[in-house]
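Deviation from plan, reported transparently: LLP complex.
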Amino acid sequence: MLFHRKGPFSEDPPNLNSEMHYFTYKRNDLYCENIKVKDLAKEFGTPFYLYSARTISEHFHKIKKAFSSIDPLICYSLKANSNLSILKLLVKEGAGMDIVSGGELYKVKKVNCPAKKIVYASVGKTEEEIEEAVRYGILMFNVESLSELRKLEEVAVRLKKKINVALRLNPEVEPRTHAYIITGKKGTKFGMDRHSVKAVFFQRQEYPHLNIVAIHIHIGSQITQAAPFARAIKKVKSLVDELEIKGICLKYFNIGGGLGIVYDKENPQTADGFARRVMPLLKEMSARIILEPGRFIVGNAGILVSKVIYLKDTPYKQFVIVDAGMNDLIRPSLYEAYHKIIPLVRRKKAENKRQKLVDVVGPVCESGDFLGKDRYLELKEGDYLAVLGCGAYGFSMSSNYNSRPRAAEVLVKNNRAYLVNKRETYKDLVDKEVLI
Ligand code: LLP
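Because the crystal trials were delayed, the predicted structure below was used instead.
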């Protein structure tokens, strides 16, 4: 069954399901596609991340379809979730990849992503990373500074290769999102200002081994409105017009990622709505368009499943202490991000009346270690719960803090659940250490 706006969680805020996904209650049990999540919790233990392959491919196709009339290259931004099985699935669907490190290059090579569908951003690419990507023959580098441009030219000379370059423009627009994930605004470390970008295009003969053929922007993440994207694209368009007068034509225009999803009461643009707003602007340019969505594709395709260890009542607060913490999901601690929390087994309506206001917290030794604050939940020790909207920036930002092994990852695909990443062991925690 498909979740749509005003989906079956009667207690949900109305827009929780405005982006469909396949996590739904059947009678009182939560299912991922057609698999009962509680069975998986018993089989694999907790905490674990659970992903729905069907949700991932449908989200990818939503973007593809919305933009089909301009046939863009869609490079999935794997920092959102770089599980190899998910990457493989997306490569099979025809996605390219947006990488930001040598490690991400290694991963996309592992799943045979065609080199000509890979773009590489990051303000701090090392010479070794650049070299590896050049040798693999990636489509282009999204360059963030003059120093990086000079480094690329050096590597190109040494390897006797021509390298494609997009200049990342900081379009200086202000999207409404969390301060830590705004990137296209004055004063952030990302991209180059308009004046510098223009100057590089005019002096591109100084870099004879680089094809400086594109512009890249990425204004931020979890952006729910199309307007800031449109403002940024218009700024690029006026720059492109100036360049064309001087006979410089762009081959590619990469508009980045950043499409927001529903965590709580957001009402984000749909892929269609976004396309309707920006495509007329993009069609005015002759460049091939590149998109770099991450969260939109995987965000609502994953949940974090955890178990209640203890209930703790204090005179001031009631705590539900669970076996997943900020090392597993750091978004609530880092951005005070809201993730809906629901039980794997839903209680009957009458029992729901006994719901209490609780903080759902992890075992980590920090007061910032919480998954949700002030939630109405009726949970007992030993109950399982699901934290929703954890497919993006969940596992990929997890750590071993407090020497906690990273959680397992499970993918439901074609009516089966696969363990696609084993839970780390204590041995994994110390394996790379050298005891002296
Ligand atoms: N392209 C570039 C150059 C990026 O830096 C990013 C994300 C994306 C594409 C994909 O953005 P998306 O479509 O996923 O919004 N950890 C934060 C999000 C950080 C995003 C970093 N850059 C969070 O948990 O909200």
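The longest strand covers residues 302-313. We consider this an acceptable substitute for the interim report.
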